[in-house]
Prior knowledge:
With 429 residues, the protein is mostly helical. It has a single domain, classed as Hydantoin permease (Orthogonal Bundle), CATH 1.10.4160.10. The protein is built from 18 helices and two strands. It has a two-stranded antiparallel sheet. Strand 1 and strand 2 form a beta hairpin. The longest helix has 36 residues.
Amino acid sequence: MREKWSSSMGFILASIGSAVGIGNIWRFPYLVGENGGGAFLIPYLIAVFLFGLPLMILEFALGRHFKTSVVPAFGILGKKFRIAGLFLVFVMGMILSYYLVITGWVLAYSLFFIIGNPIPFSQFTESYYPLLFFLISGGISFFVVRAGVRQGIEKLSRFLIPLLFAMLLMLVIFALSLPRAMQGIEFYLTPDFSKLSDPLVWTAAFGQAFFSLSVGTGIMLTYGSYMRDENIVKSAGIITVSDILVAILGGFVVFPIVFSFGLDPAAGVQLAFVTLPPIFQEMSFGFLLGAVFFILLFFAALTSAVSMLEVPVATLIDSYGFERKKATSIVSLIIILIGLPSALSYTALKWELFGTPLLDLKDFAFGTIGIIAAGLVLSIIAGWFIDEEIIFKQIGGRRWMQRVFMLILKVFIPLILFINLITRVIKPG
Length: 429
């Protein structure tokens, strides 16, 4: 018998856990910094509400109707659609394989600050600590998913998500008390409208929206398959607003610190691991604040990693009749093996291709290109090949609202995703 969430709250918290990840607290602030401050918020919010939210609603609707994960759900339509489902699972697995590496970095820095000995990121990546913590993060995710939907994923989310919000609010209050904090907030919220003419700002916003909301890759479809009779539109709205709130609050933590200490707001990926740790060490109670910041990041990363792992695990269970423990063991082993090159690219071995760490190449190939392609595949199949009455029955609402939803799904989402995909391929920088 298929597992179900124990309650609507359990389902919403688990879905928030999936949506809220490193992408909100670490990736979002540096993308804002790289793309002209507040100007980035405009395309980001457009991407979230007009494209990310409808896809989340769609995935929940399909999951609850078919009561299975993405591959068998698509397989009902025919063999070629099953291949499309496998593509979504493949993209998800590849993203998870390097996401666990970054999750390991965050776990490592959490422990470094707890013991009062944070080491420079350059020294960290000259060691084999990244490999060790990658394996530990993969192991933790394995045990959570192995325990099941209720006892593993839901129980973890019920504990960590409220704690995550509490820790984030504490960091916001501290950051806003710093000198020159308002300069950071002004940079963060004041839009430079000239940036909106740059197509890469828009593609970055759409990529972030899809990456952050966990849509387009079958995660929410899989979570939807464990639903009972929750209001899909209302639930998706709560999850989306929560995701945006965490991302925006993440900026309220990072930018006051950046401006108070005269740092570059466009520091990019290195912001969390290179720039901020030395700053925490200079502050009063800095080791405590650093520990809270990185524990917060780890909680966010772990709940997302668990949701990613559930997708291929559910595929083995639903498609091939595997028992959960066996399915989790097989998938986890494969993910670890695939992720080893990414982990080793930031160790003393420095595995690179064309002078670029393998993790960075995989992030571009799957975290940018792959996730957009997956969303494109999902929207086309759902919009054009699945009976729209199936979707209407699940989402409810007035007929004209349903028609508008299908217009967005069938025309606007594929068009925008296709434009974003071509832009990113032609102009990847």
